């Protein structure tokens, strides 16, 4: 095994309670006896501090305590200072300064003093600094610890902000944040304060900085990527240091953070490609747990994975034996917490039992309204409900899930109807029926297929209207009807173009396509049932309409680049051949057209992400904006490689979310 630097701590510095506290021999018991000999004005210390600090530092590990030997099992590992960037080397040496004695530059160490007087919230490092620098802040910090804890003080106090951020990240990964909203808010508020104040806790190393940036931004805090760009450029976290464990995690956090930068934040954009290349090279040499996390991040970045899918994987691979590297091997309940794991497993499986009952109700609804009798139509009950449950996993959001799933099922059937399942007369008749709304279905519907479709549409709409009145305390009838009219009219226009051989402009196609892609009845109606009040002002706001436009355009184009060959053969309009036809004088080919459309999609995705994440000037509630973003992730999943929605490629994923209980190996 490759040699690593291992910090060997002397016996008097060993920890209590599983490595969480350091024993300090406190003498005399009354703190006033050493205050009297502490600090004289302008003259520093007249003599070394009393027995307390002398005993603490008399057992400090000398430089010889840093031994090079094979690292086995779970040793206390630190990244070696040699070969790393000078700033990281200085921070590292300051962190272990109690082991360096007179060999160290103690003036440099004091640059890392925190507002509470400590060095890195470490009693041992702070005591060492007090001996060599006679600093008031160090003395105040250590005195406060003894008053609070007596003879045995924690290895780190207060608990490092990085540890608490890891706790928040863990709760997100396990899908149980709704149980800890207050605690999470407190941690993030403190992290934001530290970010604004430029606190060393955040900006000392790239891992903490990237993690804080990601958690703060996705939770709506206004943070710039400039400090992170600066620290990643200054710190050579992808250097030739021996400890790949640290480097891979640093690159992983930078990679995750790079996926939530805005279009204008070009200073940090290059970090995405750099960290991606590094992770791909290092993944083969990483440990199993890191290998899986890196592999997941590369395959499914911020916009590529549904939360429920990630939650299941994180539960199954949760590391209950995690150790935090502090002054000693430190088992942190904030990181490797078995209670979190048990709660996550119970919560996931309890939600599944609700999902299974709801999907049975949907299957009965399909048969009640005879949608299963439409031979031309795809029946995608499981897929539609899966996307709903992945977007609204909480048990109390049943109304949102049912609305989303029913609308998704209906628009799938309608898409097949307009793509060839119905005659032109039937298509026109369905549009007229929806526009009139209050009709005699026996006389006004020209066929049984039109009758089935209209009755299912009206039942779904009526249910949404009734439920929304309870959630929103207002009538949304006009909005619901408007949405369904827009969908059927846009589908008819597309069908006429295809049957007449018309070639619309790209602008005409996109403007119509963002409606015919039929996300209107799915997302905008479902978010009436997630909690926040949606006034008419919000629903008609430019922000709300832009979210819908970006989501729908992104979905339309993503669908088109994966289905253009099949749809071209069927005589259906598609963005790829249309784009090529309008640029035929340039000789553009299929692949080039696809790549240019992908660039347009990426711009839409970045613009939408900014709308979703930013809170300044926003009037659309975050829970509602998250649903728009989740739909982008849904279409990413369905069209990751091909038309996964039409085929059966993701059936296994659907089963994992709805039917198969989750377990962890430690519970078997």
Automatic annotation (TrEMBL):
Residues 105-298 form the Terpene synthase N-terminal domain. The keyword Magnesium applies. Keywords: Lyase, Magnesium, Metal-binding. The keyword Metal-binding applies. Pathway: Plant hormone biosynthesis; gibberellin biosynthesis; Hormone biosynthesis. This is ent-kaurene synthase. One of its GO terms (molecular function) is magnesium ion binding. Its cofactor is Mg(2+). One of its GO terms (cellular component) is chloroplast. It holds the Pfam family Terpene_synth. InterPro entries: Isoprenoid_synthase_dom_sf, Terpene_cyclase_plant_C1, Terpene_synth_N, Terpene_synth_N_sf, Terpene_synthase-like, Terpene_synthase_metal-bd, Terpenoid_cyclase/PrenylTrfase. Belongs to the terpene synthase family. It comes from the Eukaryota. Involved in the biosynthesis of ent-kaurene diterpenoids natural products such as oridonin, miltiradiene, eriocalyxin B and nezukol, known to exhibit antitumor, anti-inflammatory and antibacterial activities, and in the production of gibberellins phytohormones. Catalyzes the conversion of ent-copalyl diphosphate (ent-CPP) to ent-kaurene. It is an enzyme of class 4 (lyase).
